[in-house]
Amino acid sequence: MGRERDRDRASRLVPGVYFVTPDGADEALVLAAMRGGAAMIQLRDKRATDAELTARARRLLPALRAAGLPLIINDRLEVALAAGADGLHIGQGDGDPAEALAALAPGQMLGLSVEALAHLSAMPAGVDHIGAGPVRSTATKPDHAPPIGFDGLAEITRAAPVPTVAIGGLKEADVVAARMAGCAGIAVVSAISEDHDPEGATRALVRAWRQG
Ligand code: TZP
Ligand code: MG
């Protein structure tokens, strides 16, 4: 228990439902997730230019700040810095996390994708939280690493020195398993973005999270 409390205090992660955008997501989708009760937002767009992503982040930040939701930028350090976002999320192939930490402002978080237990030993101190997965295979990220399942998720979460968020193929019915694996949150793309009612889908995930 003591270790759990220490981990929570050290991280600026907001626990709960973390919405990661699909390519080309408009601001309305992000605001729908916000209204539905998402705890954090990640702008992830493999197609947008840095300038487009920076402009999107700047347009979203006032509303997200007012609602207390951190905005994290996927992959693009320059965008996170230029937009004054709340953090950056990088994967295993996205460069040296220690260099990203050195470049980020002191108030900015760094999230790191962890796809296997072995990735934890290479993780520098200062990483704020981990995205662990993919738990399941998912069409949203065609080049994903082999799925780790909920057992792999629990193994990583137990060993991690910072909070973990589960990601990859997760739906409302998986919230309890992610919580039982020790996760501080559940990160989803399609469970929100592909629903005909993204706000309602977010609300259902949040309700499941709070009940779990
Ligand atoms: N990283 C690992 S799986 C994944 C990312 C960005 C995509 C998750 O998308 P979905 O639609 O929630 O499976
Ligand atoms: Mg990446």
List keywords for this structure.
212 residues; 8 strands; globular; 8-stranded parallel barrel; binds magnesium ion; magnesium; alpha/beta
Per CATH, the class reads Alpha Beta
The gyration radius over C-alpha positions equals 16 Å
The residue ranges in which pLDDT falls below 50 over 5 or more consecutive positions are 1-9
* Succession of helices and strands: HEHEHEHEHEHEHEHEHH
Secondary-structure-derived class: alpha/beta
Helix content: 40-55%
Q: Number of folding domains?
A: 1
For CATH, the homologous superfamily is named as Aldolase class I
What does this protein structure show overall?
The structure is a single chain. Helices cover 42% and strands 17% of the residues. With 212 residues, the chain is α/β, with parallel strands linked by helices. An 8-stranded parallel β-barrel has the order 1-2-3-4-5-6-7-8, surrounded by 6 helices. Helix 2 packs parallel to helix 3. The model is unreliable at 1-9 (pLDDT under 50). Bound molecules: 4-methyl-5-hydroxyethylthiazole phosphate and magnesium ion. 4-methyl-5-hydroxyethylthiazole phosphate (TZP) binds next to helix 9.
